[in-house]
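Rotation project, supervised by the postdoc (A.L.). Task for the rotation student: set up a whole-complex structure prediction and record inputs and outputs verbatim in this book. Inputs entered:
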Amino acid sequence: MTTVLTEQGPAEIEAAPTPDTDALWLAPAEAERVFGWTLKPEGLCRGEVCIPVPAGSEADYVADGAVNIAAFFRRMGKPVLTSRDRDVWLFGESAGDRAAQLESLEAPDFTLPDLHGKPHSLSDYRGTKVFLTTWASW
Amino acid sequence: MDLPVWQALYERLKDDNFTIIAVAMDSRDGDPLPWVEAASPTYPVLVDRDHLLADLYNMTNVPQAVWIDEQGAIVRPAENAGAYEAFRARDPKTGAPSESAMATLADAKRTYVEAIADWVAKGPESEHVFDRQQALDHLSRPNDDTALAHAHFRLAQHLIRLGRGEEADAHLGEAKRLHPDSWNILRQAIPPNDMGLAVDPDFIARVQSLGRKHYYPPVDMKGMPSGDPPTAD
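Outputs recorded:
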């Protein structure tokens, strides 16, 4: 079993073993379930956005009906990291996406637990002025 | 520690369509608990072990704050939440804080809190609310290294939770290297001292080497301290 960490939290996936340490091959249905990206003839798509498979390196991205999700994320400039045994993968967001979100001035939404474990989302407080502040015990 | 300050402000303004959300950038289980119990906050206090907020809002230290209006729009991007680096003006021999720096610290927090109250009362008419262009001018944007640093930090925290601390250390090291301006990342990696503070010789040396750079950058707001940081004299 392989754990994938995305902004939505951890997800367990079935990944095909591969000798290529940089690759994470998933069935298209798994890619869609965990990442929200769908394999289509025009590339890997989410909403209106499609990432075409680069000509000449098709086999690095889509092969035998599986998707190398790590290759697609790297192509989008998103950080992809793995643990030593490659049993944990982290898929981050690119600086460009983060900056674009901030430049929209629409406050990025998040969901975090309170001390009792109850989740709170920023969007729950829409309609209210929010003073969002950080602190730390350290 | 700001929680009691925010609690007093929340009590005063909570019936005016206003809330405070205080997010603890604490990665270790249970660390924030004693502080929260002491302050008994009635506004939400959330725990962000992976520093997601720092990643989303490009924050590098605590306390930092964002003002968000009723439509979910940022009217003041991430900024120092009214803190003042009075600790840098301690007498090097006795460790006693400088009286003038402590007075500036108290003034700064009071000014910042009153600015929030002014925003809550006047909304977009408050002089402390930025227009679109001002907000963009005050925005700090992440770069590729900071985005990668946050990815390493998140992976490290997950590995720590799996009991794989040694493997996590390499990723924490990468996070620190890639994002040297982040006190959040640096200090989370320091074990707390007797007073519960993440202060070690490396941290002290880094603060001392700041020179005229700020630990808490000045807030661009009327009445807030500006100019060089205080020094021990």
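Student's summary: Chain B has nine helices and four strands.
Supervisor addendum: Residues 144-208 of chain B form one domain.
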